[in-house]
Amino acid sequence: MSLSKSKPKSKASPSAAADLSESVPNPSVVKDASTQDVDLDVTHARHEGDITSDVLSFIHDAVLLQETVAAVLGVKSLPKQTGNDTQSNNDQNGLNISGIYVDATFGRGGHSRLLLSQLADDATLIVFDKDPTAISVAQELASKDSRVRVVHDSFATLTDSLAAMGITQVDGLMADLGISSPQIDDGSRGFSFMRDGAVDMRMDTSRGQSVAEWLEQVDDETLANVLYEFGEERHSRRIARAIKQMESYESTLELAEVIKEAHPNWQRGKHPATQSFQAMRIFINNELGDVDDFLAQSIPILKSGGQLAVISFHSLEDRRIKQFLQRHSKGQYPEDENLPMPPNRPRYFSKPKRVGPSKAETSQNPRARSAWLRMATRTDTAYEQTTQL
Ligand SMILES: C[S@@+](CC[C@H](N)C(=O)[O-])C[C@H]1O[C@@H](n2cnc3c(N)ncnc32)[C@H](O)[C@@H]1O
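^ thats the input. predicted complex w/ S-adenosylmethionine below
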């Protein structure tokens, strides 16, 4: 146990944390699909008392699957699949589309596999992921399907990684942001406040600093700012102080317990560590910075008529994607930024569209409930190097 003597708190244990899951109702009942919230892990809490075979085998249910693949291909919908295997690589009924496509967040390849089923034999699909386990799965797929090329790096390296393959432009870009179910469900990765593990939270375990290493050296004020900025945690100062009083950071359940005890205002159905865990995860993986970099690079990388399709799971990301597409489809900064209106800018995208999950999807996969897919088509406006993104 690594709590300081000044905090004679109850010991964190799996059961102490799991107790909360009893008060966590089915999120699909509590919030409708349009709610943009920041508590992705609440669905995880629900799994504590309800371990399905999916959780045990670390499967990821792809969210907004048909909608995203149709969007990146620029079609209204995909043809009905024949047979039972809806994600086979070569669907006889597929659209047979040629071109170069990118799945920026391979995960377990749900979106990639469906996309491949619609692509022609001469098409190319480049897949990115930061996570070494996701990359192993991608490499296995690539060993069976010569259309697949794999990049173990952040999608923020999009331009350089594609240039290294001799590719300067692509027909479609898709990204399904955030973390995957296998990452949450594997306690050893440190993303979960419901399963014990090292306080790591890196998507790419092969490089960078873990949350534990960062917590050792960060000061109270910086920590509080991170909790506030990336978790929208209103009690960030009090929680930061409690975290900094811990003697060491070896267990996610201990960390969650300290946050829980420092949090003065528990909400029914939500673990009090939800927002703090989210904040530390977003910070340590530079998630928002990577999204900004990726979006900026999408303009020169997409061919005219190419499609951008991005799924986000919380308002911090969704707002960025929305504002980026607004700026570059209207050719102006949105008025709500309170800036003097600049002169018109080039319109790089068509009017963006937004799609959320159906009721059927959220009842089958509660993790889909806070997802938004935003999509737009690259116009034929020539990209200007001088454009301020
Ligand atoms: C929600 S999952 C994607 C699931 C995937 N669409 C599927 O169907 O299996 C998000 C994935 O993106 C990866 N990821 C998150 N940020 C990334 C980044 N900046 N660069 C590359 N991969 C990233 C995570 O490691 C995770 O595997």
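The longest helix spans residues 315-330.
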